[in-house]
Design a protein that fits this description.
Blueprint: H1 3-19, H2 21-28, H3 34-55, H4 63-90, H5 93-100, H6 103-114, H7 121-138, H8 149-172, H9 178-200, H10 211-238, H11 241-244, H12 250-262, H13 269-286
Length: about 290
Amino acid sequence: MPKHRVALLAGTLACAFWGGLYPAIKVVMEVLPPFVLLAVRLALAALLLWPFVVRAGGFPRERRLWWRTLGVGAVGFGVGLGFQFVGTHLSTASNGVLITTSTPTFVVLFGAWLLRERLTRRQIVALVVATVGVLVVIDPRQARLDAMFWGNLALLAGALGWALYSVLVRWLTREMEALQVSLMTMLGGLPLVFPLAVWQWPHARLEAFTWETAAGVLYVVVFATAAAMFLWNYAFAHLESGIAALTFFVQPVVGVLIGALWLGERMTLGFFIGGILIAIGMYLSATN
C-alpha cells in the first residue's frame, strides 16, 4: 500500500478512537474531574510510549528540538485540550461537536500560512464535501450557538489550539520521528495541566471507582491517547496538513455510531447521508 494511503488510514483510525471518547469520558468523569482525567491521560500514555521510544533510538540530543517539541505539546495538550475541556463543561455537547469539527478548516489555514502548503482543486473539493457531510451528521440546527457564549468561545479556542498543534507536528517531524514527537508533546502539556489537576483533585470521587471506570480510563489512555496520538502525528508527518486534516471528519460519525450502539441514541437519515459524503471526501483525497 502506498505510504500516503497508510498515513491516511492512520489518521482515520486515530479519529475513530477519538470518536469513542464521549461514552468513555462520560463514565470516567463521574469519578475524576476533567483536568485530573487529562493529567492521568497524558502521564500514563507517556509512560506507555516511553519504552517504544527508547527501543527506537531514544530522544533527540539537540536542546533546540526539546524546547520546540515541549512548546508544541503545551499548545496542543495544555491550550487546545484544556480549552476543549472547559468549553465542553460550560457549553453543550452539540455545540462541542459542531465547533470542534471546524478544526480541519483551521488546519488548512495554518498549513498555508506556516508551511506554505497549497491545496489542489481536488483536495479543496474533498474538504468541502467532507465538511458538508459533517454538518449533515451533526445537524447545526440542534446547536444553540446564541447561548453559553464563553463555553462556545473556549471550544473555538480549543479548535484553534489543536489545529495549530497539528500543523506544528508536521514541522517537527521533518527532524524527528512521529513516536518521539508523540511522547515529548505529551510531556510538554503536563506543566500546564498538572496545576489545574491538583486544584480539581478534592472533587475526585475515588470511592465511586468501579471496573467500568477502570475500563473507561484504559480506553482513554491506551487507545484514545497513546495509540491515537502516534497515529495522528504519523499522518501529519507523511501527508500535507490539508489532506491529513480530512480524517478528523471521521470522529463525529464514529461518535454518533457509538452513541447509537452503546447509549441507545437514535441515528437519523442525516447520519447515513453525511457518512456517505465524508467517505466520498476521504476517497477523493486518497486517490489524489
